[in-house]
Amino acid sequence: MTLAGEMRDNDGGQGEFRISAVLTGGNFRGTLRLTLDGQTVEAPLIPARSFLENGKCYFRAESGRARADLGGPCDTASIRGTFETFIPGKGLSNGAMSGRVQSAAASAAPAAARSGVLPAARLTCAYQDRRIGVGMGETTQYSLAYSNMASLTLDPAGTYRTASGGGRFTRTGDKIRLTSGAWAGAVGTLEPDRSGEPAVVFHIEENRRADGVHIVDPYTTRCTRAR
Length: 227
Hints:
9-stranded antiparallel β-sheet; mainly beta; 0% helix
């Protein structure tokens, strides 16, 4: 498939991007070319960071110190969302992007898996940790970190277990709320992971206490079946 479109950063700079990729097992492989204010990044996609999940496409490419991240809702015709780049000599930029999608075959068309399925397996929980660069030329670094929960197992009878204890939960539609135990108050969304398997996502926007402190982890936590 090919994705091409325009970008505008938060300082008013303009650019364009083009991605040529193949979707296999939920991950994209291919190349990305991005030009912003006359500066260009062209590099292969990082498969572990370039994927389709719940109707959203995410892409990351790296070449030496240069990198580019794009992501947002996508379908067989279009993509829209945000981007972040670091280009030596230009620095860090972020903003909005939108573009067109052309699929080489129907089998490559993005399709969202069914939501609202209660996972039966023991799930491993993790989040993308972020280290914000503060010095000249330093970039935001991402790494996978295990959740404070470490693992999550849901019983249809309304109980849950984590690596450090458990409690009860209630369910409304595709949402679960942990009502007792160390994680009381946490809200999880029953979403499929990138392979289509049932998973639970604790979106950070839904998991802050009244004082703003996170309930589960400092960023969105995804509990998925270990592979």
